[in-house]
Amino acid sequence: MAIVAAKDIQAKDPTLLADIRDALANCMRCGNCMAVCPIYKETHNEASVARGKLALIEGMLSGEVEMSAGFDHVLGKCLCCKACAANCPCGVKADELIVRGRQAAVEARGLHPIKNAVFKLLSNRRLFDAALRTAGLFGPLSFKKVPGKMAAIARFPMPGIDRKRMTAPFAATPLRNKYPKIIKTDRPAKCKVAFFTGCTINYMYTDVGDAVINVLHHNDMEVLMPPTQHCCGTPVYVSGDKNLAKTFAKHIIDVFSECDADYVVAACGSCAEALKIEYPHMFQDDPFMYPQALALAKKTYEISEFLVDVMPIKKEDLGAVRKTVTMHDPCHMARGIKVTRQPREILAAIPGLTFIEMKDADRCCGSGGSFSLANYPLSRKINDRKVKNIADSSAEVVATSCGTCRMHLTDGLAQNNVDASVVHVIQLLDASYRAGEV
After folding, report:
1. Whole-number pLDDT of residue 71
2. In terms of DSSP bridges, do strands 191-196 and 182-183 run parallel, antiparallel, or are they unpaired?
3. 394: region left, alpha or beta (phi > 0 left; psi from -120 to 50 alpha)
4. For residue range 277-308, what is the model confidence (pLDDT) as tens digits?
5. Which pLDDT belongs to residue 152?
6. In what order do the strands lie in the sheet with 152-154?
7. Distance between CA atoms of 31 and 356, rounded to whole angstroms?
8. 207: helix, coil or strand?
9. 52 in helix, strand or coil?
10. At what angle do helices 50-62 and 14-24 cross, to 10 degrees?
11. Per residue in 346-375, pLDDT tens?
12. Element (H, E) at 376
């Protein structure tokens, strides 16, 4: 890719650059972000922390720094965990500025060839679905199932995957292929709930999807699962391709706007954040799409948030789940949609369950979506700190609300020989309802 100066993209998108410049002025270079950045704690490199990245973007805008592959590399070393923004005394949303810097880089130089190829596949819903269904059918030829865990290890070396790394196995039958579009209850329905499955639950952790449907049914809600839904677009958005991300967002808005649903639920903090926060932000200047994005956002909830704040669960039907459980708060749950109380209320309602709060429960686990693929050794170091906190809690089970966190934590626990399993919060609630039926 050619090196492009800031002035060359200013003509293309002056609003984007002006917005970055205005926001950068609020950063006082105090260094508070250094105390909370999980990457900086491992590298001790100024370029790793938000302050360093913002200085680099400022240099690009002033013309002192060229938009080279090195610029992309530095901005790519960010988990988008939002810890810097949450702890900034000046209120600088550094995570958003870094994403905008990535957007400027994509405007100037395009996506990295690998990401470009992946996103082209992802943007073709039917082809992507066929590819992942094929992976589910023939996955056992390439990945060996780990006994007793929802995990698999590559049978032979593969590009981008460490030989020892545990990943989630692709499902032989995706979640949306297991159920009809409308999943009715045996009793009169209190309301209709549309389930946004996302990619990880649909193609990997179908056990989470089963639990969501079971719990909603037990609480007398009809479930709608639109078969044409697709990726929320978060991986594309945080990589800097805002135009393609808007295409994903528009598709989801159209699909769920056509649903005759009272509410929309997601069982992933990142997906929930996309529908609740990112979509209205993307279309804030679009008079046609903004009202639709806002309407979807207003009726969208993360599943634990929904079952605590909107349609409270039937506690009288819960049975005992005799497990010692701790909680990992995904970044986009804790600092994105700010949902941390509700998962704990669900766990507290389960009879027989002993909850132990781990140290730094909301600290990033090091996954960061594709970050851990491109930076596995670094992400493992970050993950090791989280695993130590889990081990210190002496919990048997780690509850979380994000598929990629679940995958990364499962790998980290195995690599550190810690005997604990990782599940979604909703799976423990489902287990409690099942126990109550016995």
Report:
1. 84
2. unpaired
3. left
4. 999 999 999 999 999 999 999 999 999 999 99
5. 84
6. 143-145, 152-154, 166-167
7. 33
8. helix
9. helix
10. 130
11. 999 999 999 999 999 999 999 998 899 889
12. helix 376-393
Cα 111 from chain centroid (whole Å): 21
Q: Which contiguous run of DSSP H or E holds residue 353?
A: none
Residues of the chain with pLDDT under 50: 1-3, 11
Quick one: 258 exposed, middle or buried, by C-beta within 10 A (0-12, 13-18, 19+)? Answer: exposed
pLDDT of res. 62: 79
Whether the Cβ atoms of residue 390 and residue 358 lie closer than 8 Å to each other: yes
In Å, how far are 231, 282, 284, 293 from 182, measured between CA atoms?
A: 20, 30, 32, 23
Q: Which residues of 101-110 are buried (b: 16+ CB within 10 A; e: fewer)?
A: bbbbbbbbbe
Locus of tokens 């799409």: 289
* Spatial contact of 336 and 274, defined as CB atoms under 8 Å apart: no
CA pair distance 79, 95, nearest whole angstrom: 9
pLDDT score, position 8: 57
Quick one: the chain helix, strand, coil %, rounded to 5? 55, 10, 35
> What is each CA distance from 123 to 170, 249, 284, 372, in whole angstroms?
19, 11, 23, 22
CB within 8 Å of 98: residues ≥ 6 apart: 50, 53, 54, 57, 75, 78, 80
**Two structure tokens written together for 112:** 């990295």
Contact of 274 with 293, CB cutoff 8 Å? no
Strands (E), 124-262: 143-145, 152-154, 166-167, 182-183, 191-196, 221-224
Q: How far apart are CA 317 and CA 275, in angstroms?
A: 31
Token pair recorded at residue 91: 């209120």
Contact 122, 202 (CB under 8 A): no
What pLDDT does 16 receive?
A: 54
* CA 124-126-128 angle, 5° bins: 65
* One-letter amino acid for residue 94 of the chain: A
Neighbours of 161 (CB within 10 A): 15
